[in-house]
Amino acid sequence: MDIIQYINENAVLIDNHLEQRLHFSEAPARLVEALRYGVIGGGKKIRASLCLATGEAFGVKREDLLSLAGGIEMIHSFSLVHDDLPEMDNDDYRRGKFSLHKAFGGAMGILAGDALLVEGFRFFLSDSYFCRLVGNSKLVQILNILLDALSVEGMVGGQVLDIDLEGIEVDEEQVMNIYRMKTARFIQAPILCGAIVGGAKKSELQDLERFGLLAGECFQIKDDLLDVTQPSEVLGKTAGKDLQQEKATLVKIHGIHGTQEIMENLFQEAETILNQADRSFSLLRELAHFIITRHH
Ligand code: GRG
User: What is the pLDDT of residue 245?
Assistant: First the structure.
């Protein structure tokens, strides 16, 4: 199957699943509206696709992974909603529409972000069919992987470094460290989650751990390249912000061509891991290729 078609099909499956299940009879209506605005009907849902494609490589049915992949997209959306706040990246646009705090106000930007994070975990934990299918031991593994990726040594810590190092002279290792913490660990996590549901062996998990981190590094490097090469209309968010905010990026150190070369080398390293695996990971390989060739 064409990978763009696969990604789009998954995005529809996830959106439909979120649409069906994100209703809360006791919650304030405006909070629910904001929460749904933050996750349904926008974004590539690439983390969901990574989870589904990995699960499928281990023989798990896509339908059985929708609550996990949907929850992961909610958690990812929390990070975007908070990242857009004036105190962070301060962006009025996201996914081609007003960012959540612009549409619903600053307090709701914080609270709907919080809600996406908490309800993202509840989304799969409250699915009793999914929990029975996976079993408690794997469920704990999945929770640990997601929480590690979001932790002070993961996304939250990475975001702090990203802010602290604005406008400061940085070297490549410092930048790569931010990329790994802020972004790559939460690209790696859905891959590992899909593999755990599928009963991956320890050695397979180790390979996918390395692959996932490399694919995640590629993801953030591509994001930085897009920021300087694509207009806002294509990105669906404000372009050129890294330069404006003096962000620590590889582009700042190596320029566009040097950065592209680093990304391609990392992709090749990632691809080699999959090529040497006993199992076929063709969709996952295609998704990694999409990550480095995408236009938004
Ligand atoms: C913990 C208070 C608090 C806030 C968290 C950590 C954080 C705020 C934000 C960091 C998240 C971030 C913006 C990481 C960069 C990763 C990135 C390039 C995200 C864009 O992901 P895409 O392209 O977006 O997959 P779509 O819209 O397609 O889902």
Answer: 87
Residues of the chain with pLDDT under 70: none
pLDDT at 244: 86
Q: Give the count of beta carbons closer than 10 Å to the beta carbon of residue 140.
A: 11
**Does residue 230 contact residue 222 with C-beta atoms inside 8 Å?**
no
Tens digits of per-residue pLDDT, 91-111?
Answer: 999 999 999 999 999 999 999
Q: Is 155 in the pocket of ligand 1 (CB under 6 A)?
A: yes
**pTM of the predicted protein model:** 0.97
**Which of 183, 227, 245 is the pocket-test mutation for ligand 1 (most atoms within 8 Å of CB)?**
183
Atom 16 (ligand 1): residue with closest C-alpha?
183
Mean pLDDT computed over every residue of the chain: 97
Q: Which two tokens stand for residue 164?
A: 């602290």
Which one of 1.10.600.10, 1.25.40.10, 1.10.1370.40, 3.40.1650.10 gives the CATH number of domain 3-293?
Answer: 1.10.600.10
For residue 156 and ligand 1, the question of a CB distance below 6 A is answered with yes
> In whole angstroms, how large is the CA radius of gyration of the chain?
18
Residue type present at position 296:
H
**CB 81 within 8 Å of CB 112:** yes
